[in-house]
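Need the bound structure for 2-acetamido-2-deoxy-beta-D-glucopyranose, inputs here:
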Amino acid sequence: MAAKGGAMASMLVLLLAALLLASASSPAAAAEQGVLRMKPTDSGYRYNHTLAHILVEYASAVYTSDLTSLFTWTCPRCTGHTKGFEVIEVIVDVENCLQAFVGVAPDPRSIIIAFRGTQQHSVSNWIEDLFWKQLDVTYPGMPDAMVHHGFYTAYYNTTLRHEILKSIQWARKTYGKLPINVVGHSMGGALASFCALDLSVKFGSQEVELMTFGQPRVGNPAFAEYFGTQVPRTIRVTHQNDVVPHLPPYYYYLGQWTYHHFAREVWLHQIIDGNVVTRNETVCDDSGEDPTCSRSVYGISVADHLEYYGVTLHSDSRGTCQFVMGTANSVYSYIHEVDGAIILSRYPQEPRALESM
Ligand SMILES: *[C@@H]1O[C@H](CO)[C@@H](O)[C@H](O)[C@H]1NC(C)=O
Ligand SMILES: *[C@@H]1O[C@H](CO)[C@@H](O)[C@H](O)[C@H]1NC(C)=O
Ligand SMILES: *[C@@H]1O[C@H](CO)[C@@H](O)[C@H](O)[C@H]1NC(C)=O
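Answer from helper R.:
Posting the output first, comments after.
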């Protein structure tokens, strides 16, 4: 009896310790328990450092508030590796404060879709809110897969999805059957994830690649697993102590009632050895929650969230949801307003049809 009680007590202590450690997202948080072991479905897919350097520039450019210079690809962030990019459509959902573009890139020769992160006045407030996000929507057709309603509807229930699908159809008709790269930073990474999943189901997993920078968690373990099988060509880049990839928190003991990242993380960090600082890019395991990557440090930095590969990733204007647009000699072929959204496009806009996409 006494021995049993003792055993129980020590088990309780262990459990409590585990809970505390896990809650703190500590490096010691159990590596094995509760972490998914996912079968890599595209073991041939590798992290490409050069590609990441190119794609992060698109994730930065989509923050541009001057829509004319964005559409004509003459904005200050529209240089460097992205030269020669042809924008097909810029979508600004004014009501929901969202922005995205679709275009065709010379290298890698592909359709690129980029989503902007939050434009709220204070990034810190947005990050604080992230802590409390609920898993409150069941992903359609996946009874166990839960996601956050806000991220989900920002892609599925706004003008974005409809416009993006239309632009891809037009681009593939005009430029041929190009592969698709979806990118986004921060909340834009969350939207990019839903978009890549949507497009993979629609066009096939081999046609779609996803790369996000500092994205939050978007769904539970069942969702992460489903995501891994549907969008195997996924790289989720995290940077040093960036706080956002740590949110909403992951609690391994909550089973399906916790958020859980999908694979594959690539963790950018510095190793300081005396006076020598080395930049390292760790390609993480296929669990989505590799304890030796960003989870091995505390997520305490907003500064690390706003810069990836030395590229600035935040708004270029001070206001909330601001944008400017040139009116003279219209460089965009078509301007269109629908459901509180402004759309600049290279192809004619039909009155919104009720076709099911
Ligand atoms: C990496 O991406 C760059 C840019 O698209 C490409 O030129 C290069 O061939 C890729 N490398 C590999 C090993 O796939
Ligand atoms: C989608 O948006 C419509 C109109 O804004 C709203 O009535 C509906 O409840 C939304 N659906 C979801 C799943 O949020
Ligand atoms: C540096 O990155 C490599 C490649 O991902 C990894 O194998 C190695 O463990 C990393 N080194 C450190 C000290 O994190």
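Comments: Residues 271, 280, 282-283 surround 2-acetamido-2-deoxy-beta-D-glucopyranose (ligand 3) (CB under 6 Å). The helical segments are 2-23, 49-61, 67-71, 123-130, 149-156, 159-175, 187-203, 221-230.
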